[in-house]
Every structure is written in C-alpha cells, then in structure tokens.
C-alpha cells in the first residue's frame, strides 16, 4: 500500500501541505500582495525542502531508499489532492491560479528528486497524474525533434510510425510508475544523440541502441523479426545470405546491454529474442545451401564449373571497377550482382589469392575510390594505345 497512514508522513512535506490548506480555505481569493506572498513562501518551502532532503539522505546510511519512498508517497498524496481540486468545475481564476502554483512547485520537487537521487529513488512507485502530465509535456518537444531528425536521416518510415505509436500508447496509460517514465526519457534522449544516417548493414546504430536499452516493446520486436526473416523464394544466393546472417548474429551477440534495464523486465530481452530468430534463420539457410551444393555435386556441374579458372594481374578493386564500368554502360547485363560475385569467386583469382571473398567484393563494388579510378583510367588509356598501334 502506497500511503495515507499518519506514520508515513514526513515533517518536510508539512509546509507545502499547510500552504495548500491555506489556499483551500480562502479559495484562492488573495490580493495581489497575497498572491506574491504565496509565491515567495512556496519558493522558501521548496528551498528548505531541498536542503532538508539532501541532509537526511547523507545522514541516513542504510535507510535512504525507505526515506525517499516515504517522501515521494507524501508528495504524491499532495499532488493527487491538487489534481482532484483542479478537476472540479466552477473554479475561480484566482483559486485555479493558486492551485496551479502549488502543483508546479511539486513538479519541480519531483524533478529535483529524480535528477539528484537516482540511486536511492524507488522507481516502482506510482507516478501522480499531474507529475506524469508535466514529465510528458517536457518530453513532447523532444519527441517532435526526434521525428524530424529520423525523417531527415531517412530512417524507415515504418519504424518512425512505430515509435510514434509507442509515444501515443505511453501517453494513453493513466497508471505508470516512475521507472516507465524514466525509460521513455532515456530512449528519446538516446535516439536524439544517434546519427542514424550512417547505416551500412542491418546491424546499425539504431539496433545497437535498442539492444543497449533492452527496448523489448512488442511491436518493435516484431518489426525486427520481420526484417531478419527471409523469403527464401526471393533469396539470390544462399551462400551470400548465410554469410550476411552469420555476421549479423555475431554483431548482435557482441552488443552491449544495460543491466537491469528495459521496457519490460518481465519478458525475454530484446537482444535474446532477435538472437534466437537469427539462429533459426541461419540453420534454415544452411540446410538450403547444403541441399543446393549436393544437387550441383550430383549433376557434375560443380566439377565442370571449377575447370574454368583464370588469374588477373590487376587488383581485385581495379577488376571490379572495370566490371562496374561495363555494367554502368550496359555493355554487360547482369540482373543480380550476387551472380557476378559468385562467378568471380569461383573462376577468378589474383596473383596473390584464389577464390576472392564475396563479402569483400560486395563492400568494394560500391566504393568510389579515386586512386582505383585513376589506375583503371591509365589501364584503359594503355589499351586504347594498344588498339591504335596494333589493330588500326
């Protein structure tokens, strides 16, 4: 039970409680001088409360959490009382102003406690509705900035819509504890600090961050499961897919996870769910790859293909750049680049290396390396000279 009993009360809260009783007694009908006096007295109460709390927490070596819980419960009772009073109909402007002044003062105290006493704060305690509305209003501008940032960085619109849905769902919950609200704050502030534009693989900064904060929000987990699961009728190369998924699994396993933290600590963590999904996908594609290799072996195609092999005197980077030029100008027509990589892997070697890596070719093909371009241009110019001298 969160409170209400006399023995739970702390004298530190009494000055603010007395101010509330005074405002209720006169229905806020204070003169301008009285209103200014109320503001000054409230400010004095807040300063005194901060000082007393800091002293108590320092002096209470073993009862800090218990003390902080009692304090939060007492302040929450006042906040709930203010909410009921502010919700009543027919309030005069003066009465409403007085109650709002006290409510804002309490919100400032909660901000102070959350920022200064994170290590002894009981985040399982219920958040008073006025405090929840205050904390959400503070975060609202951050949510707006986040949406703009993700749109600018060309993050998947489906993921942006999902995060917007998360924001609205959390706002719609009338009963939340402080830990849930703190979690939202950590997620929003963390996402604002990410540069989501630098995405090179499925394991990008966003996925690493979601692992770190254990964002096991069901729609988000389902979103990534959908990204990781393959439609194998559309997979171009089982071998390429196997390598890609294995690298992704390794990266996911190496992700740092914040201990004892998450959206829902009562269910399996975000990282654990996705690791399990990837392991199953890898097992499936491995079986398909083995079946495919057996089929090639039985038909003799594998043997025939390996008879055709040659070496090149230029580097892999230059060779791929030449192919890229031919494809760009539609001299060579390739529907799937994966076929090109597999062909080169199986039939082409450099002077130093056999069976060039498919992964390296994928990374190299899309690079705009100025030095490689200069060397290829020199090679093409030498070929033009050779044509002029020998064939024209």
Give the strand tally: 2
Determine the oligomeric state from the structure: single chain
Strand order of the largest sheet: 1-2
- The run of helices and strands is HHHHHHHHHHHHEHHEHH
Mean pLDDT: 84
- Secondary-structure-derived class: mainly alpha
Largest sheet: 2 strands, parallel
Give me the number of helical elements: 16
Amino- and carboxy-terminal Cα gap: 97 Å
Low-confidence stretches: 1-7, 299-306
Strand content range: under 5%
Helicity level, as a percent range?
Answer: 55-70%
- Tell me the radius of gyration: 33 Å
Number of domains: 4
What form results from the Cα inertia axes?
Answer: elongated
Explain this structure.
The protein has 392 residues and is an all-alpha fold. It has four domains: 6-122, no CATH class; 123-198; 215-299; 308-390, no CATH class. Helices cover 69% and strands 2% of the residues. It has 16 helices and two strands. The protein has helices at 14-26, 32-59, 64-87, 93-116, 129-152, 157-172, 178-193, 205-212, 218-228, 238-253, 270-299, 301-307, 316-328, 337-347, 358-365, 370-390, and strands at 310-312, 348-350. Strands 1-2 form a two-stranded parallel ribbon. Helix 1 packs antiparallel against helix 4, helix 3 packs antiparallel against helix 4 and helix 10 runs antiparallel to helix 11 (270-299). It is elongated, with a radius of gyration of 33 Å. The model is unreliable at 1-7 and 299-306 (pLDDT under 50).
């Amino acid at each position: 039970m969160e409170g209400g009993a006399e023995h739970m009360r702390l004298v530190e809260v009494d000055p603010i409680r007395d101010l509330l009783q005074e405002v209720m007694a006169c229905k806020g009908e204070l003169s301008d001088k009285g209103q200014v006096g109320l503001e000054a007295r409230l400010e004095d109460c807040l300063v005194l409360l901060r000082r007393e709390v800091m002293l108590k927490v320092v002096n209470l070596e073993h009862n800090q959490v218990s003390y902080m819980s009692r304090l939060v419960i007492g302040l929450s009772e006042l906040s709930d009382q203010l909410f009921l009073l502010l919700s009543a109909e027919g309030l005069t402007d003066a009465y409403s102003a007085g109650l709002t002044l006290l409510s804002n003062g309490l919100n400032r105290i909660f901000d102070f406690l959350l920022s200064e006493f994170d290590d002894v704060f009981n985040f399982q305690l219920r958040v008073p509705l006025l405090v929840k509305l205050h904390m959400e209003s503070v975060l609202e501008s951050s949510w707006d900035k986040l949406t703009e940032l993700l749109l600018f960085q060309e993050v998947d619109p489906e993921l942006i819509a999902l995060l917007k849905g998360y924001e609205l769902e959390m706002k719609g919950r009338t009963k939340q504890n402080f830990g849930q609200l703190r979690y939202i704050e950590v997620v929003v502030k963390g996402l604002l600090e990410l540069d989501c534009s630098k995405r090179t693989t499925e394991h990008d900064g966003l996925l690493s961050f979601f692992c770190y904060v254990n964002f096991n929000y069901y729609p988000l987990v389902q979103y990534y499961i959908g990204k990781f699961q393959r439609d194998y009728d559309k997979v171009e190369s089982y071998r390429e897919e196997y390598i890609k998924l294995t690298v992704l699994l390794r990266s996911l396993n190496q992700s740092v996870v914040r201990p004892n933290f998450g959206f829902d600590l009562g269910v399996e963590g975000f990282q654990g769910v996705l690791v399990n999904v990837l392991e199953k996908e890898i097992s499936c594609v491995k079986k398909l790859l083995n079946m495919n290799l057996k089929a090639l072996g039985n038909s003799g195609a594998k043997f025939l293909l390996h008879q055709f092999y040659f070496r090149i005197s230029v580097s892999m980077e230059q060779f791929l750049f030449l192919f890229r030029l031919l494809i760009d100008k539609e001299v060579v027509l390739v529907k799937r680049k994966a076929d090109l990589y597999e062909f080169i892997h199986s039939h082409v070697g450099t002077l130093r290396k056999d069976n060039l890596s498919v992964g390296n070719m994928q990374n190299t093909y899309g690079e705009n390396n100025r030095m490689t371009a200069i060397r290829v241009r020199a090679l093409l110019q030498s070929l033009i000279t050779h044509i002029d001298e020998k064939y024209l």
